[in-house]
Amino acid sequence: MNTIASAPLAPLLDRLFAEADRATSPAMAGLSREERERLMHSKTEYLDFYGRLKDLWLPVSRRTGELLYMLARSTNAKTIVEFGTSFGISTLYLAAALRDNGGGRLISSEFEVSKVARARQNLAAGGLADLVEIREGDALQTLSADLPDGIDLLLLDGAKSLYPEVLALAEGRLRPGALVIADDAGYCPEYLDHVRSPAGGYLSTPFGDDIELSMRLA
Ligand SMILES: C[S@@+](CC[C@H](N)C(=O)[O-])C[C@H]1O[C@@H](n2cnc3c(N)ncnc32)[C@H](O)[C@@H]1O
C-alpha cells in the first residue's frame, strides 16, 4: 500500500502544492529581510508574525514530505506529534504513513483558526481525517497536556524559536529510538546545541532540505 502515490492523495497533493505556490502575502512583501530574520528568531512575537502570514502555506517541500513519509513508514510509526500544521501538507504525508502502517494517531497543532479549518478539509479530502487530531491554539499550551506515551516521531515545523520548548513538552514521551525531525532548525541554534550535545540524549545530523534529523537514545 502506498497512499501518497494513489488517489485521492496524489492528485490532492499536486493541487495543494500548486495552490501553495500561488499564495501571496502583502504582509510578507512588506517585511524587510532584516525584520523577517529578527521575527524568525523571536520567542515573543511568533503569534503576531505567523498571524500576519496566515495566507501563506509555508509547506515542507515535496522532498521533505516524501522523506517524512519514508521515515514514518520505515520506523512503523503509530504515534506522531506535529508542531505547525498550516494547511496540512506535512500532516497529509505523515497521516498517509500511518494509514499504510495499519493505523495510528497523529496529534498536530496550529494556532491560526483559518488554517486549521482548511487543514481539516484537506485531510478529509485525502481520506485521512480519522487519523488526525488538530489541536487549535498555541502549541505551548495545546501540547503541554495529554500527549500519548511512546511517541514514535515528532515533527517540528512551527515557530523555529520555540523548538526547544516544544521538544521539552514531548521529550519524556518519546520512545527510545524515536525520530525528531526539525525543519529549518538553523534558525534556532539553541535547539541544535541541545540535540547535538553528547549530554542531550540524541544522535543528531543535518539531513536533506534544511532538516535536522535526531534520534532519541533512551
Ligand atoms: C512552516 S508552517 C508549517 C507548514 C506545515 N508543516 C506544512 O508542511 O504544510 C508553520 C506553521 O506553524 C504555525 N505556528 C507557529 N507557531 C505556532 C505555535 N506556537 N503554536 C501553533 N502553531 C504555530 C504557523 O501559524 C504556521 O502555520
Strands side by side in the biggest sheet? 3-2-1-4-5-7-6
Number of strands: 7
CATH superfamily: Vaccinia Virus protein VP39
What is the highest CATH level, the class? Alpha Beta
Explained architecture:
Helix 5 runs parallel beside helix 6. This protein starts with 8 loop residues before the first helix and ends with a strand. About 40% of the residues are buried. It has ten helices and seven strands. It is of the alpha/beta class and about 220 residues long. It has one domain: Rossmann fold. The structure holds S-adenosylmethionine. S-adenosylmethionine binds next to helix 4, helix 6, strand 2 and helix 8.
Offer a quick outline of the entry.
The protein is of the alpha/beta class and 218 residues long.
What's the arrangement of secondary structure elements?
Blueprint: H1 9-22, H2 26-29, H3 33-41, H4 46-52, H5 62-74, E1 79-83, H6 89-100, E2 105-110, H7 113-125, E3 132-136, H8 139-142, E4 151-156, H9 163-171, E5 174-183, H10 189-196, E6 202-207, E7 211-216
Parallel strand pairs: 1-2, 1-4, 2-3, 4-5
Antiparallel strand pairs: 5-7, 6-7
Which key phrases capture this entry?
single chain; alpha/beta; seven-stranded mixed β-sheet; 43% helix; binds S-adenosylmethionine
